[in-house]
Amino acid sequence: MNELIRNIDQSHFKARSGAVGGVYSEWLKFEISSRKMDGF
Predict the structure, then answer these.
(1) Between vectors from CA 31 to CA 40 and to CA 36, what angle results, nearest 5°?
(2) 11-29 tens-digit pLDDT
(3) pLDDT of 40 above 60
(4) CA dihedral 7, 11, 12, 14 (to 10 degrees)
(5) Rounded CA separation 21/14 (Å)
(6) In the prediction, which pLDDT does 3 show?
(7) Rounded to whole angstroms, how far apart are CA atoms 23 and 16?
(8) Rounded-to-integer distance, Cα 24 and Cα 18, Å
(9) Which pairs with CB-CB distance under 8 Å and at least 24 residues apart come from 12-18?
(10) What would the DSSP string read from start to end of 1-40?
(11) How far is CA 32 from the centre of its chain?
(12) CA distances from 7 to 11, 16, 24 (A)
């Protein structure tokens, strides 16, 4: 039972960190493209 809870917890954490990583990489792309426009 405890193992099952741990597995669910791990997959939930992976999904959450994956979502955060996706948002961060999207922001990074946006940041880089806006800096290119500014000429930095």
Answers:
(1) 30
(2) 887 878 888 888 889 999 9
(3) no
(4) 140
(5) 10
(6) 87
(7) 11
(8) 10
(9) none
(10) -HHHHHHHHHHHHHHHHHHHHHHHHHHHHHHHHHHHHHT-
(11) 17
(12) 6, 14, 25
> 21: closest CA among 34, 29, 33?
29
Place of tokens 């880089």: 32
How long, in residues, is the chain?
40
Percent of the chain with pLDDT over 90: 8
| Residue 39 reports pLDDT greater than 80 | no
Mean pLDDT of the chain: 83
Quickly state the pLDDT bin for 1 (edges 50, 70, 90): low
